[in-house]
Design goal:
Layout lengths: L11 E3 L4 E3 L1 E4 L8 E11 L2 E2 L2 E2 L5 H9 L1 E2 L4 H7 L1 H4 L16 E2 L3 E2 L2 E6 L4 E9 L6 E12 L6 E7 L2 E6 L4 E3 L15 H15 L16 H7 L8 E4 H10 L4
Antiparallel strand pairs: 1-2, 3-4, 4-12, 5-6, 7-10, 8-9, 10-11, 11-12, 13-14, 13-16, 14-15
Helix pairs in contact: 4-6
This protein binds zinc ion (ZN).
Length: 255
């Protein structure tokens, strides 16, 4: 059984932070029914070349960005960015038109580009920020993260990638690790982010890699898992198989 919305699920809309938290349900062909996703996921990419996001720093961000397909803005993109920025979805980037309404003084830019994720059918809106003269330039990808996977689908690995945590399914598909609203993840320090990740790893092991839904029970996670997630060893980029997560639960070590 996958994600079950809490009783009295509320739409939470915040045009000031440009994100909208909601539940979408999709049945992408080839994946099958049962995927549910929520709003509010933002991936920031700071490196750019010729106005395009460069993801060389992270092979996982690159894998995800590369699979996105450009498309015309639609109602789901408007829901992602909020009403304040909605009109800008239709304005060209300064690289394509220096006279664009979202261009600033000829070479600055605050445009939006729209895509969809062909794996999940989810909307993606990428916000380009470039200061005049280009001293600062980045892209923030606004999209939805999964609340669950089709019945029977199983986690193959959990990926620590800087501040971003990904998971890969047994068919090799990359997704953001499901995340409850307001409960983000972290590694390599003592605090709320690593505590939530440790609880999530415990839950993944308990579920044997099935039914990976966001949110964890309150209370302290397993001490061995938390000790590793909070340690410097957990900071660097690494992909942990389900067997390694089970070993971590048993022994406190991944090897
Ligand atoms: Zn732009």
């Amino acid at each position: 059984m996958g994600y079950q919305p809490p009783h009295g699920l509320q739409l939470v809309y915040d045009p000031n932070n440009g994100s909208c938290h909601f539940v979408l349900y999709s049945e992408p062909p080839g994946i099958g029914p049962g995927i549910a996703l929520n709003g509010g996921k933002i991936l920031t990419i700071d490196k750019t070349t010729d106005g395009k996001a460069v993801t060389a720093g992270s092979p996982y961000a690159e894998e995800w960005v590369q699979r996105l397909e450009p498309c015309a803005p639609d109602a789901l993109h408007v829901a992602l960015v909020g009403s304040k920025d909605a009109a800008a979805l239709w304005h060209p980037c300064v690289y394509d038109d220096p006279q664009s309404p979202v261009a600033i003084a000829g070479d600055g830019c605050v445009c939006w580009q729209t895509f969809h994720d062909p794996v999940t059918w989810m909307p993606v809106a990428a916000n380009h920020f470039r200061t005049v003269s280009g001293n600062h330039e980045n892209w923030r990808y606004h999209t939805c993260s999964p609340l669950g996977f089709p019945d029977g689908e199983r986690l193959a690995s959990l990926i620590i990638d800087g501040g971003q945590i990904w998971i890969r399914n047994q068919d090799g598909t990359l997704h953001f690790l499901p995340e409850a609203y307001g409960a983000g993840y972290g590694t390599g320090y003592g605090g709320g982010g690593p505590t939530e990740l440790a609880r999530m790893i415990e839950k993944i092991v308990q579920q044997d890699g099935y039914d990976i839904t966001p949110g964890t029970a309150s209370g302290m996670p397993d001490r061995k898992i938390l000790a590793w997630v909070s340690s410097p060893a957990a900071k660097h980029r690494q992909e942990l198989s389900l067997d390694q997560l089970k070993r971590l639960r048993r022994t406190g070590m991944i090897t």
